[in-house]
Amino acid sequence: MNDAATTTATAFTEQLLPPWRRAVLKVGSSLLAADGGGLSPKFALGLAQFVSANVLAGREVVIVSSGAVAAGRAIVPKAAEAGAGIAARQALAALGQAQLIGLWQRFFERPVAQVLLTHDDLRNRRRYLNARATLLELLALGTLPVVNENDTVSIDELKLGDNDNLAAVVAALVDADALFIATDIDGLYTADPRSNPAARPLDEVTALTPEVFAMAGGSGSSVGTGGMRTKLEAAAKAGAAGVETYLFNGRSAEVVRGLAQDRLRGTRLHAAQTRIAARKGWLRHAPVEPGAILVDAGAAGALVERGASLLPGGVIGAEGDFRRGDMVEVQLRGEDGQRRLARGIAQYSAADIRRIARRHSRDIEAVLGYSYGENVIHRDDLVLL
Description:
This protein is an alpha/beta fold. The chain has helices at 29-32, 44-56, 68-75, 79-82, 86-105, 119-123, 125-140, 163-173, 210-213, 228-240, 253-260, 275-285, 297-306, 350-356, 364-368, and strands spanning 15-16, 22-27, 60-65, 112-117, 144-149, 178-183, 204-205, 244-249, 263-264, 266-269, 292-295, 315-319, 327-334, 337-345, 382-384.
């Protein structure tokens, strides 16, 4: 089954969404591309209203938006003929990015921030950590991050492939509770409803089995890069990180209005486990770098009893030569020696930690000349052993 055609929203049963605090909304090219080329606000307006309603309710939303290449093609219609393959697409993306951000900014009074990511940003642990910190800071500042793959510099062998999978990665990156995928079909069916009258809508999918994937097909849109199969692949990635995925028809004003009131007409794809359990499991089993961060009894008590972040004031020193973004052990040094206490992602290198040990967080920048934040390890990046 592909997602090239719009079907009727009445086929799916309305269901209430579980509570969520932070979400990623993925919007595909098929919802933004104008018939004559370029971008259209026709469906983007309703989706923007969904975002605004949730932001006003105290929630946080990150948009992953396609459409830059389609926008660039409208600016220079013959651009695709001037180059070959990825180079032409990179040029079109560069031309269209400003148009894409301008489209979203027109719907919001709050600032819209453009964030361009590449495969390298997400496979390199330190760059991953920097991307995460930037997105979380943008949310804390009350802005609306709009994420896209950096097609201008990506090459085929390093591309994330499509924005469905990018959205899943971003959902895990920012510890989202939900991934909303707006498409131009109502949800997942047991078969292609356009060619099979016996196709049934699936309101819920509890496990993404091979049989479920067999119901999906390739891309059916002339402007998109993926069909329902890529959406299921994205849901699998998100689910492994404890993030639930919701597929819905972004062309239906009724469906989008209902979604703003936590009512879904579409397909709910359950996560394999809770978000917290998924992250803690990863933290517990990811390879650890040689060395350790040494802490005193006061810091150990704060970590164990209060679930606090590790601050430099409770750090005695650091062993080894690990770098920012590495997974390292936290060890308690006492009269009876050292014992393993926790493990987590270091916000600072071993060399930096030795310089800021026993200092107050406010002194970090004065000592180092820069600061990555007040924590040596944030509590969300730490698990007790």
